[in-house]
């Protein structure tokens, strides 16, 4: 079933699970680069998973993408800077980090990263994409649309209130997935997907 067809149905628990979580588990593959999308909780959820992949030899480089300024424990700072700071503190070499500093949303994460990716992977390549589980479907579809010359491998982070296993257990989890359902619908209507 096409994503647009699924979005035409009511967001029942089964449909939400199919749309946002089915078929996206990380398969353990190695790649040329790990790409981490920024968010308010990227340093808490996404960066540690990306560092784990890096340290286990899954990819030799990391790309942090996100230009929004967020409140952090260190004060207000851009997503890319907070992710870089967190990764270095967890043992990632600064020379293995690429920084995309302008994007303000998921689509821009990829369009603004294109030039950086062309510099380090001019002939295409494999990229492990790290984001939260509920966000992975939209991120992966957007990546494949904007950067078709690269193969993206999904690595959804299963932490927080909207994981594959717990999203339906709390009002917060349900609000999060319904918001993501709406964003996917918007991306399709706006022609992004």
TrEMBL record:
Residue intervals of the DUF218 domain: 32-181
Name of the protein in question: DUF218 domain-containing protein
Pfam families: DUF218 (PF02698)
Listed GO biological process terms: Gram-negative-bacterium-type cell wall biogenesis; peptidoglycan metabolic process
Organism of origin: Ruminococcus albus 8
A GO CC term attached to the entry: plasma membrane
Gene3D superfamilies: HUPs
Matches recorded under PANTHER family: ENVELOPE BIOGENESIS FACTOR ELYC, INNER MEMBRANE PROTEIN, PROBABLE PERMEASE
């Amino acid at each position: 079933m096409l994503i647009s067809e699924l979005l035409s149905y009511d967001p029942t628990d089964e449909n939400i699970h199919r749309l946002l979580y089915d078929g996206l588990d990380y398969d353990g593959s190695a790649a040329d680069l790990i790409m981490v999308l920024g968010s308010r909780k990227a340093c808490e959820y996404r960066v540690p998973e990306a560092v784990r992949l890096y340290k286990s030899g899954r990819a030799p480089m990391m790309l942090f993408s996100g230009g929004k300024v967020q409140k952090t424990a260190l004060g207000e700072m851009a997503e890319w800077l907070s992710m870089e700071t967190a990764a270095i503190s967890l043992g990632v070499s600064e020379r293995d980090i690429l920084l995309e500093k302008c994007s303000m949303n998921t689509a821009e994460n990829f369009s603004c990263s294109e030039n950086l990716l062309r510099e380090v992977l001019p002939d295409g390549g494999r990229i492990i994409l790290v984001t939260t589980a509920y966000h992975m479907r939209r991120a992966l579809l957007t990546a494949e649309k904007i950067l078709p010359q690269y193969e993206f491998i999904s690595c959804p982070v299963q932490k927080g209130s909207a994981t594959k296993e717990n999203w339906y257990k709390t009002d917060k989890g349900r609000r999060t997935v319904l918001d993501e359902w709406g964003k996917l619908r918007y991306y399709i209507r706006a022609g992004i997907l």
